[in-house]
Amino acid sequence: MAIRIDSKLTAKKLVPQIERLFELSAEKILSIEKTWKPEQGTPVFTVKGKYTSRGWTEWTQGFQYGSALLQFDAMGDERFLEIGRRGTIGRMASHVSHIGVHDHGFNNISTYGNLLRLMCEGKIPHNEDEKNFYELALKVSGAVQAARWTKLADGTGFIHSFNGPHSLFVDTIRSCRALAVAHQLGHVLMGEQDARISLLQRLIEHSLNTARYSVYYGQGRDAYDECGRTTHEAVFNTASGAFRCPNSQQGFSPFTTWTRGQAWAICGFAEQLEFFRTMRDAARYRTTTAAFLKAALATADHFLANSCTDGIPMWDTGAPNLHRLGNYAAKTSDPYNQWEPVDSSAAAIAAQGLIRLGNCLHASRITHHASRYKQAGLTIAKSLFSEPYLSTDPKHQGLILHSVYHRPNGWDYIAPGQKVPNGESSMWGDYHAKELALLILREARGEVYPTFFGCVS
């Protein structure tokens, strides 16, 4: 068994749930704005319903202010535009020039990118100086991200993770949007002796190496090669540029699938397919986009096959106590089970990717498969936007419950009487649920389909 896809579900049918979600979201954004003290760092996840920080890398502040911008986009309440704009201008500059992370596409596209997109769409007034400010931030962000470069034996390379030059994270496929936007804005990375380094070429090489080393295709690469499985981290010998082994930071093991990492792959490859379709010389990149499509389809199929019937996945497909749940994929998800946690944030990220993948396939006239993926995304959204995943308690600052951050490190709060993490939210889970909701809401309203590259007019 696997997800039971609702083939009759439409964007318009989800509007009441989405409006309810944004109604709750407004209260929670205002609560965080009122209580959060910037000297505490960046809000990351909730403990007993209150957002707390967790020093590892600063990768979630863009979701904090980006959430307010999505709230304004969806409902038109200018209080949230002001929160998002003020937070971006006052707090995000260090993220633009942050040379120590692989997360520029998360932090800066969610803030500067959303503001620029809203301006390009006419949802906020045009201001040339403000537009130039946002564009400059996005140019620098894309170049800084591209500078985290590890060269491989075949002459290509990848953007290395905060772990160091040996480390390729599957997450970073979605952060490549920073390079795409900077390239669209006409920017390049300047290297030694004024070498002009193409951001688009680095995006392509990183994405192709992610598809090659982070995604499995059932071709016997190792003893655990299942088609569509992903590894969180691919490790390389930096002296020779050779691939060494898979690894996992946040998943259970190198040979099981951490589902949020898989969700990043689904969403990231689908977005890059959307992006390359818009390029004037798109035909030039057919080999590249074919690899992206292969990776997107493989990961999407594996995710859907291993999710519960409502589309919510367990945190890892090889988690050690899954066998105690029996055939969990034949049942509706149970976030309060006593053996292994689900991860609602993985569901929110994957659902958006599935809808985008379905739309890409539809545009390519592959209509049968297009419908399957899009309907799967809508089905997952319906599950997420309902209890027990939608947080209706006004005292709880999270929007989407039952998110997991770092299970191996034991960072997630476990309530008294529970054996596994549940009942808590994450900044990325809440943000991506709102991105998902906005995507569906705009379709229902007949508005412009939102894309990360829509910020470039």
Care to describe what's here?
- This protein is mainly alpha-helical.
- It has one domain (12-455): Glycosyltransferase.
- Helices cover 47% and strands 7% of the residues.
- It is built from 15 helices and 9 strands.
- A 3-stranded antiparallel beta sheet has the order 5-8-9, with no helix packed on it. A two-stranded antiparallel sheet has the order 1-2. The protein has a two-stranded antiparallel ribbon with strand order 3-4.
- Helix 13 (344-363) packs parallel to helix 15 (427-445).
- The model has no long low-confidence stretch (mean pLDDT 97).
SSE ordering? HEEHHHHHHEEEHHEEHEEHHHHH
* Total of helices: 15
**Named CATH architecture:** Alpha/alpha barrel
Could you give a short account of the major beta sheet?
A: 3 strands, antiparallel
Task: Classify the helix fraction into a percent range.
Answer: 40-55%
CATH class: Mainly Alpha
By secondary-structure content and strand pairing, the structural class works out as: mainly alpha
Terminal Cα span: 45 Å
Strand coverage percent: 5-15%
**Order of strands across the biggest sheet?**
5-8-9
CATH topology: Glycosyltransferase
Please, how many domains? 1
- The whole-angstrom Rg is 20 Å
Mean pLDDT: 97
